[in-house]
Amino acid sequence: QKEVEQNSGPLSVPEGAIASLNCTYSDRVSQSFFWYRQYSGKSPELIMSIYSNGDKEDGRFTAQLNKASQYVSLLIRDSQPSDSATYLCAVRATGQGNLIFGKGTKLSVKP
Amino acid sequence: DTEVTQTPKHLVMGMTNKKSLKCEQHMGHRAMYWYKQKAKKPPELMFVYSYEKLSINESVPSRFSPECPNSSLLNLHLHALQPEDSALYLCASSQEVGGGTGELFFGEGSRLTVL
Predict the structure, then answer these.
(1) End-to-end CA, chain A
(2) Rounded distance, CA A43 to CA B8, Å?
(3) Is the dihedral angle over the CA atoms B97, B72, A37, B77 positive or is it negative?
(4) Residues paired with residue A13 on neighbouring β-strands, in sequence order
(5) Are A23 and A7 in contact (CB under 8 A)?
(6) Residue A74 burial class via C-beta count within 10 angstroms: exposed 0-12, middle 13-18, buried 19 and up
(7) How confident is the model over B11-62, as pLDDT tens digits?
(8) CA distances to A33, B52, B105 from A52, in Å
(9) Residue B57, CA atoms < 13 Å, CB-side half-sphere
(10) Mutation to test the B interface, candidates A31, A47, A98, most B Cβ within 10 Å
(11) Alpha-carbon distance A6 to A76, whole Å?
(12) Residue contact B42–A45, C-beta within 8 A
C-alpha cells in the first residue's frame, strides 16, 4: 500500500514567521510531488509542484524534495493569517494519473 | 478562478432519489477524476477517466455510476445512496493519465447530504 505521511498538526506559528510542513512517502519510484492548500469547506488548490531534487521557490513558498530520503517539504515565509488552512501533500501514483494524498497538516497563523 | 466547474454546489437527497453531479473542464485535459472527501480526511479516489474511457474504479459501490460523455464532461450518477455517502465530491482534471505534469486541478466540489 503506497502511503503519504504528514504530521496532522495543528501547527501554530506567529504572523511573519516561517512555517515548515513535512511529508514522507513510501513509493521509492515516485517522480511527481505536489502541495495543495485547502481552506475549510473549500476544495484543494494546487500551490506547488516539484519533480527534481532540491528547492523550488514561488513567491513566499519553497518546496524541497529529497528523493533519497523520500521526503518533501513546504516552507512558507512571512506567514500571514490568510495562510491558515490545511496543507495536503500529494504524490503521483507511479504509472497512473491519480494522486495519493497525505492526511494533511492544519496550519494556524496567529496575528 | 477554477477552470473546472461542478454543479450543483450543494445537493440534498433522500435514499430513494436519483440525482447526478456534473463536471466540466475547458483546459483540453484528457484525464478526469472523481474524488470523495469526508470531513477532516484527505480526498479519496473513486474513478479515473482517460480519453473518455474508465481506467480506474477504486471498488466503488454500484450506487455510484460515472459517465464521461466527451472529453470536457464528467458526470456521477447517484442512486439509492446511504447517509454515510454524505461528503464533498470533487471533480479534477489533468493533462493526461501517466503523462504531462501530473498536476490535478480541482473544481469547487459538490457537497452532498443524504437524508
Answers:
(1) 40
(2) 14
(3) negative
(4) A109
(5) no
(6) buried
(7) 999 999 999 999 999 999 999 999 999 999 999 999 999 999 999 888 899 9
(8) 9, 31, 21
(9) 12
(10) A98
(11) 16
(12) no
Distances (CA, A) of B87 to B15, B81, B108: 14, 12, 13
Q: CB of A63 within 8 Å of any CB in chain B?
A: no
> Per the structure block, which three cell numbers stand in for B59?
471498488
Q: What does DSSP assign to residue A82?
A: G
pLDDT value, residue A8: 81
Strand arrangement of the beta sheet that strand B64-70 belongs to: B4-7, B18-25, B73-79, B64-70
Taking an 8 Å cut-off on Cβ atoms, the answer to whether A95 and B33 are in contact is: no
Q: Nearest C-alpha of chain A: how many angstroms from B70?
A: 18
Residues B106/A44, Cβ–Cβ less than 8 Å: yes
